[in-house]
Design goal:
Blueprint (H helix, E strand, L loop, with lengths): L1 H25 L2 H4 L24 E6 L2 E6 L15 E2 L4 E6 L28 E9 L10 H10 L6 E5 L2 E5 L8 E6 L3 E7 L4 E8 L4 E8 L6 H15 L4
Parallel strand pairs: 1-3
Antiparallel strand pairs: 1-2, 4-5, 5-11, 6-7, 7-8, 8-9, 9-10, 10-11
Length: 245
């Protein structure tokens, strides 16, 4: 009986180990890696180690979505010496280039930029997403391009103008001679509202209606006319990074 008991106990332990390993393998990648610790804390060591693979991924959870985002696309990046881990954030900050053929698999294209931000050395087609976040029913007021558009249209004076250029609404409220220009585009899937002042950078708000993600974006003024290409590139990246649930 003792020998039989030992045999049964061994078999049960082996089965439990197999089940446990299978469960781990079945879990999403983001649940198998640890949470990042001090991910954005500067590395102040006198001789920091070499940067790891810039395409190593970091897990990000936004609402029901799990994304695996390569390090090089992250804006306000984690430390260069940090291994893959899960960023405990509810808003995703990224940067990418839009002047590519989005019909090609994103695994074959480098959308990235080795630097950070829209400085003088940044590519002319660089776009920064300051915050990409999930919403349940509607974007927060601050992130809602529809609300911003309605408020701006209501404020247009007799000295202002609203006209359509290449499918984009150009809005000049007419408040003052030094004011900027606003741009609006709405489709079934996307709505965007962009404001440009007298400097070269513009800020905007983009609503990806079909996936309920809203974004606060920064782009160069000449890129406003390319908003459809920017939208397509962002959609492609999100689709590529999204883990199957």
């Amino acid at each position: 009986m003792t020998r039989l008991h030992k045999t049964i106990t061994t078999l049960l332990s082996t089965m439990a180990l197999i089940i446990s390993e299978s469960t781990v393998l079945a879990q999403p990648a983001s649940s198998r890696i640890p949470l990042c610790v001090d991910a954005f804390k500067p590395d102040l060591s006198p001789k920091p180690g070499p940067a790891l693979d810039p395409m190593r991924t970091f897990a990000v959870v936004l609402g029901p979505y799990r994304f695996s985002v390569p390090w090089v696309f992250l804006s306000g990046r984690p430390r260069t010496d940090l291994q893959s881990c899960e960023l405990g954030v509810n808003k995703l900050a990224i940067q990418f280039r839009y002047n590519v053929d989005v019909s090609v698999s994103s695994n074959e294209i480098d959308y990235s930029y080795d630097g950070v931000g829209s400085g003088n050395d940044a590519p002319s087609d660089l776009v920064e997403i300051q915050a990409l976040q999930f919403y349940d029913r509607a974007p927060q007021d601050y992130f809602d391009p529809s609300l911003r558009y309605r408020n701006t249209i209501r404020a247009v004076t007799t000295a202002g103008s609203v006209k359509v250029i290449d499918g984009l609404e150009e809005i000049k409220p007419g408040w003052s001679a030094t004011e900027g220009t606003h741009w609006h585009l709405a489709t079934n899937e996307t709505e965007v509202f962009i404001s440009c002042d007298l400097i070269s950078l513009c800020t905007g708000f983009l609503n990806l209606r079909d996936v309920r993600l809203s974004a606060h974006i920064t782009l160069k003024q000449h890129s406003v006319r390319e908003i459809r290409k920017i939208d397509a590139t962002l959609q492609s990246l999100i689709s590529n990074w999204r883990e199957n649930q």
